[in-house]
Amino acid sequence: MKMEKLITNELGSGDNFSLKIIKLQGICEDNSKKVYIQANVHGAEVQGNAVIYHLIEALRNNLSLIQGEIVLVPQANPLGSNQKVGTWTYGRFNPITGDNWNRMYKDVLKNEEALNTLAKEHKDDATTSKKLKKLLKEKIQAMKQSLSSYGPNENSIHFLNLQELASDADIVLDLHTGPIATNYLYVPAFLEEESKHLGFNHMLIIPNEFGTAMDEATFMPWVHLQKALKEHEIDYKIPFSSYTVELEGEELIDLERAKIEASKICQYLVYKKVLTKNPFSTPTVGDQYYCHLKDYKTYYAPRGGLVNYTKKVGELVKKDTTLFEILNFNDLDNLVTPYKAYKDCLVINHNTSSNIRDGMELYQVMENYWKID
Ligand SMILES: [Zn+2]
To answer: Which of 45, 159, 237, 366 could anchor a disulfide with 104, C-beta 3.0 to 4.6 Å?
Structure first.
C-alpha cells in the first residue's frame, strides 16, 4: 500500500490543500481490473471516508486478495470540506461561484472523432477497451491544458484531475450521502441487472446520458464508444461500471455502519472478480427496490413554517396518508396543517431542517417502484 499526495489548491495564506491518493496493489495481470473509489466531493457528505477507512484496514495486510488494483481517494474535495458555517459544513456548493461541486465534470469524449477511428480499427473488445482508456487519459490531459491557458479555473481543473485518476479504471464508485436519507444507488440503465450485487436497498435508474456528475462523466466515454461501434455494426457490451453510492445522511460518520457498507462493496468486488474473497463477514441485503429517475419525485413546501416530517426515510407510504405537517402561527384556528402523499411512494431523503420557507425541498420519494426477488 502506498499514498501519493496531489496539491489541489494554494490558499491566500500560501498554504496548500492536497488529495491523498491511496493505492492498494494486488496481483496484477494483463486482464486484471482497476477500481477507483472517491468520497466526500460534497463537503458535508463524510460517511464515504469511514467506508474507505474500513477498506484500507481490511485490505492493507491482505493485498493478495486483490486481483488488480484499488485506488482510494478520501476527502476528494478539500476546498468543499473546509467551508464551515458555525458548526455546519457548507459543503454542497462552491461558496464563491455558487456551483454544485458534483456538477463540474466534463463529457470528455462527446463528438470525439477518434472514437470513429477506434471503431474502424476494432479487432476484439478487449483491445478496443484498452485503446479507449488511453484515448480518454490523453483527451483529459489535453482539456486540462487548454482550460489552463489563462490560468486554472477552480471549477474545472480539480474535477478533471479526479476524472484523470479514474480514467483507466474498470469500476468507479463515487461515495456521497443524502441530507437525511436511506441508502441508495444511482444506477446507469446499462447496469440495472448488475446493480443488485452491491446489496443496497434502493436503486434509481438513470438514463445513459450526461448530467455533469462523476458517475456519468466516467461512463459516458463507454456509451459513446458503444454508439460508434454500433455504427460499424459491432455489438459491444460495456465492460465498465460506475455508480454514485448514497450512504444515508450527511455531517456525521458512523464507523459501525461503515463496516457493513464496506462489506457490501467488497461482496460486489468478489462478484466482479476483483477480490477473491470478502475480508468482512457477509452482509445481509434485505429488500431491494428500483425506480426510474423520472419517477423520483420531490415534494416542495406548499407554505412556510415548521415542518414535522411524519414519515421517515426508507418508509413505504400509501397515497392520501399524511406525509408531513406544517406548524404556522398565522391562523390560531389552524396551527398545524397536514399534507398527504399524492401517490404511493417510498421515502428516500428529507430536508435536515424543520424551518422551511415555501418552495424549499422537503422530501424525495420513489414512485412506481418495484421490488426484486
Ligand atoms: Zn453528494
So the answer is: 159
The answer to whether 51 and 76 are in contact (CB under 8 A) is: no
Cα–Cα distance measured from residue 9 to residue 79, given in angstroms and rounded to the nearest whole number? 8
When pLDDT is averaged across residues 154-168 and rounded to a whole number, the result is 95
Task: Give the CATH H-level superfamily of domain 2-286.
Answer: Zn peptidases (3.40.630.10)
> What is the pLDDT, as a whole number, of residue 373?
86
CA-based torsion, 196, 91, 361, 320: positive or negative: positive
Q: What is 295-372's CATH number, 2.40.10.10, 3.40.50.720, 2.40.50.100, 2.60.40.420?
A: 2.40.50.100
β pairing state of 33-39 and 322-327: unpaired
pLDDT for 202-241, tens place per residue? 999 999 999 999 999 999 999 999 999 999 999 999 999 9
For residue 204 the three cell numbers come to 434509481
Distance 102 CA to ligand 1 centre (A): 7
Question: Which residues are within 8 A (CB) of 6 and not within 5 positions of it... i.e. 6 or more apart?
Answer: 18, 19, 21, 161
Which residues are close to ligand 1, an ion, with C-beta < 5 A?
42, 45, 176
d(CA 130, CA 118): 10
Domain positions in the chain: 2-286, 295-372
CA of residue 217 relative to chain centroid, distance: 11
- Tell me, in angstroms, the distance from the centre of ligand 1 to residue 62's CA: 30
Tell me the H-state helices in the chain: 47-59, 78-81, 113-120, 125-147, 157-165, 214-231, 255-271
CA 39 to centroid of ligand 1, rounded, Å: 9
Residues across the chain = 373
